[in-house]
Design brief:
9% strand; three-stranded antiparallel beta sheet; 130 residues; mainly alpha
Amino acid sequence: MYVKAAVTTARSLVGVATIVCTLVAGNVAAKDKIVTVSVHVSAQGLDLTQPADAQTFYTRLQNAAWLVCTRGTRVDLLPVDPPKICYDKALGSAIHSAKAPTLTQIYLATHTLQEAAAQGIEVPAQVAAK
């Protein structure tokens, strides 16, 4: 039964990450048209309650956010926001949507509580008290 819960959670996070990257991450301009760029980020095979797996997934989210917020391999697409702002929004939105405490802890290692709050990330009470 515990294994089923872990598999179900991982599957739902894959869907969440895909939606977040699609909706937030990559608004770019192409000849006066706004185009949304998305990248599928998979948590398949990862248990996000385990720190090593959560770090692997966080790295995947970082890479996807950077890819959609920069020119990457796309031709004639220019970022609407500066890449750093777009990247921060995309990564923060993905962490917010995942609602995984281990991912939140990894995010907070390099971001402030104020940055987390601005992205709507729920900070566990024990972390906020520190």
